[in-house]
Amino acid sequence: MINLTNKIFKQVPRIIFGEGSLKRLSEVLPADKPENIRLLYVIDAVHKQTSLPSKLDLKNEDILLFVNTAKEPTTIQIDELKDSLVKDKVNPTVIVAIGGGSAMDIGKALSVMLKNPGSSSQYQGWDLVKNTSIYKIGVPTLSGTGAESSRTAVLTGPDKKFGINSDHSMFDAIICDSTLLKTVPADQRFYTAMDCYIHSVESISGSMINEISKAYATKALELCRNVFLGDGDDDQLMVASFMGGCSVVNAEVGICHALSYGLSLELGFHHGIANCIAFNVLDEYYDPYVEEMRSMMDKYGIKLPDNVCKNVPLSGLDRMVQMTLKMEKPLINALGESWREAFTPDVISNLYQRM
Ligand code: NAD
Ligand code: ZN
User: Fold this and answer.
1) Which ligand is nearest to the CA of 192?
2) Under DSSP, is residue 115 helix (H, G, I), strand (E, B) or coil?
């Protein structure tokens, strides 16, 4: 069994937390002469329609890159963005990534790719990045993925959805300002928050857990309960997301993520809703948490689509199963080293057909 108990516990070193904290961004810039600091803001394009840009203390030389997140980030998108930045001689010393998991991951991936040769698809995996990346600051405007605290930049490639997992893809600082969540639609807020809930369940239920990760996951679950079954607010949701991310980056996800990647790859479901759809059939593995998610859905009037694989041809179903089987670490975490004996292609296919 992989023993992660003695692994170095990774965390973002500098965090500013609290309503209105975005205006303190200058406090987490690297210590350097102002003339040496060239900022590239990578911002979810949804914020062309919000007041967020007006809250930034922009200088003439700052560059704003609005990124489209209608689809989750792809390796092709990152490679194209990198090429055009290089062509335009944009040579930032700091990247500020503002948005949900997608925009934050684009910022993280660009910070790696502007300092490393080749295509981003070459770095999907664990610890494949050689060169130090650009200093980066994360600013979540949607909470739950934990991308702000994780070591991953998740990208969809031609045949797999996989993260660049590296110390170089971790933020140097984050700013958690809950006023930035105000414009998030209610259903999106729920789905992305459930990503945090499920990260915490999977990490706490797995064999790769350690006491620090367990403490983070336990608190993240409590905060999710407060928010969705009690009277918790967006500050609590932001802390839950951060803690769920800390927990999972130092432990592992599990069966739900292994299945949800297949749903995103083949059917294009965004990560949050894909997780909810997958988790909803995993009573056998994760009860009573599955039941608890259903009570949160009831309270928030969330209805998941059903029978989502009904039009998927056998070849598509097979690609989804193959994607799940690639998620070896999460499956070892959830089911042990001999996971292949119990979690066969038939079992996986059956789970997909029940979604
Ligand atoms: P997202 O970033 O894809 O955003 C979902 C939608 O919400 C988009 O339409 C976006 O424009 C909108 N949005 C974001 N902020 C908003 C705001 N303040 N107001 C209004 N709309 C807003 O969603 P997500 O669930 O945060 O991220 C999903 C992505 O994160 C996936 O690609 C997933 O694979 C990845 N992910 C990464 C990690 C990690 O550790 N890096 C962990 C989990 C998931
Ligand atoms: Zn997730």
Assistant:
1) 1
2) coil
Give the mean pLDDT of 180-199: 98
6 pLDDT tier (thresholds 50, 70, 90) = low
Separation between Cα atoms, residue 201 and residue 211, nearest integer Å: 14
User: In this structure, which ligand is nearest to the CA of 100?
Assistant: 1
What b-and-e string marks burial along 146-159, b requiring 16 or more CB atoms within 10 Å of the CB?
bbbbbbbbbbbbee
- Alpha carbon of 197 to ligand 2 centroid (Å): 9
Q: Is the pTM of this model over 0.90?
A: yes
Q: Say if residues 332 and 258 touch (Cβ distance below 8 Å).
A: no
Do the beta carbons of residue 43 and residue 66 sit within 8 Å?
Answer: yes
Question: According to the model, what pLDDT value does residue 298 have?
Answer: 97
User: Which structural domains are found in the chain, ordered by start?
Assistant: 14-181 (3.40.50.1970), 186-353 (1.20.1090.10)
Residue nearest atom 27 in ligand 1 by C-alpha distance: 101
Check pocket membership of 142 for ligand 1, CB cut-off 6 A.
Answer: yes
**Whether pLDDT at 1 is above 70:** no
The pLDDT of residue 316 is: 96
pLDDT tens digits, residue range 101-114?
A: 999 999 999 999 99
Res 249 pLDDT > 50:
yes
Cβ–ligand 1 distance for 141 under 6 Å, the answer: yes
Q: How far apart are CA 45 and CA 40, in angstroms?
A: 15
CA–CA distance, 46 with 52 (Å, rounded to integer)? 10
